[in-house]
Amino acid sequence: MSGIGALERPKKQSLDRAAADSLRNAITSGQIAPGARLTEIRLAEQFQLSRGTVRAALHRLVSEGLVVQRPYSGWEVTSLTPQDAWDLATLRSSLEALAARLAAERMDAGGRKTIEDAFSALEVACGGGDWEALVAADMAFHRTVVTLSGNRRLAEHYDLIANQVRLYIASSNRLILPMGSLLDRHRALVEPLLAGDAERAEKAFRDLAMRSGAEIVAHLEKIGTEGEGADP
Q: What are the residue boundaries of the HTH gntR-type domain, all occurrences included (predicted)?
């Protein structure tokens, strides 16, 4: 669990929430691998918190789908199965495609500036080679489009799976090398948005989500096949 950063608690934030934030960032950025075990004792020592506080933080992440509690064995970072990846890809494609259509239909000078700024931040992150910053910028770009849709209920539903989508994005991005390829994929999303082309924007976002999903599913299935064929 060396990928966990130091615990920082902003004013008026509870200790368990601060610990959950630190763990969430480490998980969604890929610093803590899917399937990794998390022990209350080690986390309590690392954060210098009580086990009860750490346990409360872990329960928060369970509710977000990032951690699972295994009977008799403790806590574990959620592992994406091929079915999980397909579920998230199809759900994400529906939500983001609708958001892109609505955002393109409402596009104005302010919206174009917001999209350009979000893409520029992603471009900077790609150039920096920092995976954590890249995942954050990638997620921020997609969340920006959802916000620009102007549909509050759509945004609320997206927030319900946001952390799982971020974990999905982290997994997807690591399959796409070099980082320039990732930037090209997002450039194809930006162009129809800036042009206010609702149909093309909707298709671009749906296609990217499903393409990324297919890549993750294929990767996970390959890993599963290799694991089944390994020597005991």
A: 13-80
